[in-house]
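To the team - adenosine-5'-diphosphate complex, inputs and output below.
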Amino acid sequence: MGTVSSSDALDGAVVRMTGVDVVRGENFLLRGVDWRVEADERWVLLGPNGAGKTTLLQLAGALLHPTRGEVWLLGETLGAVDVFELRPRIGLTSAALAQRIAPSERTGDVVVSAGYAVVGRWRERYDVHDLTRAGMLMEQWGVAQFAHRAFGTLSEGERKRAQIARALMPDPELLLLDEPGAGLDLGGREDLVSRLSDLARYAYAPAQVLVTHHVEEVPPGYTHALLLRRGEIVASGAVDDVLTAGNLSDTFGLPLELTRTDGRFTARSAR
Ligand SMILES: Nc1ncnc2c1ncn2[C@@H]1O[C@H](COP(=O)(O)OP(=O)(O)O)[C@@H](O)[C@H]1O
Ligand SMILES: [Mg+2]
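Output:
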């Protein structure tokens, strides 16, 4: 691996990884990952179960350090920066985080409390700006009508959208979404894809990285794709170049046909 001067780290990339391995025992969870995300890019991260998608997202979320290689996030070198300063600048949703939200928590509190980087309401009063922003985000993500309802009473799709509103609350520079489409019915998925597509096209939105197993969940407007298989990158770059039947077949280990209609993808077995 070549040497990289510290000035390279300040070149504006939101995420930059070079030669990254994550090793646990004998297993390479990630191997030789080079990746770069710019502020105006929206990435989809695709791969089968166990490919290392969540591990890669945890690196990008400053929740994990690489075994080898270098990770720069928002101009800071992971390992040389206090991760507690970095994390509020990064919005993250995942099933693991969702499990930490008490089902009895009011949905409005779940969203507004994110600004204080805590799960759950702990302040008696919030700043009026926070309340306004939370209201605006809940409106945008279609959960405003549930502000007073317990989080646990929401449908899976509504909870997913409330979590994204929460992740956006601190106005992050990077938004990481780990399988937000998991467990949604068709209506819930289509609603989510359409809202994510709107966010992707909003020029002032943060850089976005969306993890999924399903090409059907790639929101129109997403610009880049990274395909992972067994911890290694199969292909990465512009969506048009990377999302091909050949690359997807290599990634998922079976011959696939891929179609694209009006910016939406569909994959099925070619057998
Ligand atoms: N702490 C760990 N020790 C050993 N193996 C792990 C550890 N955490 C995750 N793995 C394994 O690493 C692989 C990649 O996991 P993960 O990043 O969660 O994949 P994905 O999100 O693509 O399904 C999986 O095979 C998983 O079992
Ligand atoms: Mg995962």
